[in-house]
Amino acid sequence: MKVSQSNNVQMRAPIVTIMGHVDHGKTTLLDKIRGTNIVDKEFGGITQHVRAYQVTYEGKPITFIDTPGHEAFLNIRKRGSQINDILTLIVAADDSVMPQTKEVIDIWKRSNLPLLVVINKIDLPGADIERVKRQLAENGVLLEGYGGDIPFVTISAKQGINIDKYLEMINFIAEYYEMHKPREIENKDSIGEGFVLESTVDKFRGPTATVIITGGNIKIGSFVVCRSKFGKVRSLIDDTGKQTNLAFDSQPISIVGLDDVLDVGSKIYVFDSDKVAKKYLIDEKEEKASTNTPTSSLNKKILAELFLEQQEKQEIKELNLIIIADTQSSVEAIKHSLSKIDVPGTKINIVLAKTGILTQSDIDQAEIKKAFILTFNVGIDKKLQTVADNQGVFVREYKIIYELVDDVEGALISLIAPSFEEEIIGIATIKKIFILSDGEQICGCVVSEGKIIKGYQVYIKKGEERLAESKIVSLKQYKNEVKEVTSGHECGIQLGDKFDIEEGDQIVCYKKVKLGFGN
């Protein structure tokens, strides 16, 4: 397989978006094509950002877009299809059609794009290619030789089997549909246009955006307009991390020099002149007005009354959150996932959702609003963590989106119906039982695990059977009353109740922990 990084500026690359269910091998396939190892760097084995790459196969450039397969990133997958020339649906032969597979099929049906199916993991023992074909047919995807004309290839991305056939098929489809012809620019005053795939705040470079050029070109020194946002291109970084002076149609490029984080899914226009560029800036007030859904005063009144009635019927528990993520698409995916949580009697209030790093201002706002700060793929400065602790602000870092969502849902459930789990603190084995003159029981014990703490709840355990519960009212070590005894030491334990216990039974010391984050 002869694949190289593309430097062919005369021929437009077809844009191929690879979509499919989580863990079906999208990133592994791209790794094999590019000779990289991105997949090992993914948290939880899940792609959580949109990536774009360009390679050359048999002298012809191809641009790939890798989209997350997790359900939370549905909107990102839809964005990928908006600029797409060819849609690749990847399905694991050992897993077949799954929920995100069906979502991709729905996107394809609405897009009228050429579809290329890749059946991956054919090397695994549980692979069943015929089952995949049958299930795809049941969902309206009729493959060649299976009642339809949709092309497909069977591969093993991990082993590199049939990758050449996949790339050959892309080149064939591109030639058939004449995708190598440059596209015309919509705005005749501009020199180039593009589509924002990803946007973030880089610690050293400031606001940056990953863009696919959709016509014309972009160069260092040119001016970029994205609705109400503006910037002069200070640097262009290609998909290999190298700086370049110029990027052409269908090329993925990162732009440095913007004055703000761009909205993912938006279109950018590139100009030679700042004066011409500023003519196309949309006023920020107009932008907010155009993006807000008009609501009549009557509707506002009805909504207000409904909410008031709801509050009168039952108390609505609110969970205030501040979301800080590494990229704009991550912010969007998190907000989308949180909006789908449905716990009756509760409400999520997102006080702030932004890209970048945790700041003192965020902590101050969280303290005022009594909000939790949840960060996603954003490192937390130790000094700021200490500041947050001192101000009583809860900050938690996440690297996998569904863990964040699960924690929020657990917190909402605990708001209306607090639930607890037991955390075992220590275990003591009874070696001898002493009966005092007043009839009180003293258990002579050895702490075998953790520690035993005076005043804590305990239960008696005989083998695997839980017998009775009580509380430690007295804890002695060498006749001295102590607060706790650690593992490996002997002690005398007096419980608040008398039980029919024997030597060899265990006293398990535990505490109840409220479920949900913030503990």
Q: How does this structure look, described?
A:
The chain is of the alpha+beta class and 519 residues long. It has four domains: 3-176, Rossmann fold (3-Layer(aba) Sandwich), CATH 3.40.50; 192-285, Translation factors (Elongation Factor Tu (Ef-tu), domain 3); 314-416, 3-Layer(aba) Sandwich (Rossmann fold), CATH 3.40.50.10050; 421-514, Beta Barrel (Elongation Factor Tu (Ef-tu), domain 3). Helix content is 26%, strand content 37%. It has helices spanning 26-34, 74-82, 99-111, 129-138, 163-176, 274-279, 284-291, 297-313, 328-339, 360-369, 382-390, 401-416, and strands spanning 3-5, 15-20, 51-57, 60-66, 86-92, 115-120, 152-154, 192-202, 206-219, 223-226, 229-237, 243-244, 246-248, 252-258, 267-271, 317-325, 346-355, 372-376, 395-398, 420-435, 441-453, 457-462, 465-477, 480-481, 484-486, 490-495, 506-514. The strands form four sheets. A seven-stranded mixed β-sheet has the order 1-3-4-2-5-6-7, sandwiched between helices. It has a six-stranded antiparallel β-barrel with strand order 8-9-14-11-10-15. A hairpin with a 5-residue loop joins strand 11 (229-237) and strand 12 (243-244). Helix 2 (74-82) runs parallel beside helix 3 (99-111) and helix 9 packs parallel to helix 12. The longest helix has 17 residues, at 297-313. The chain is elongated, with a radius of gyration of 30 Å. The two termini are 53 Å apart.
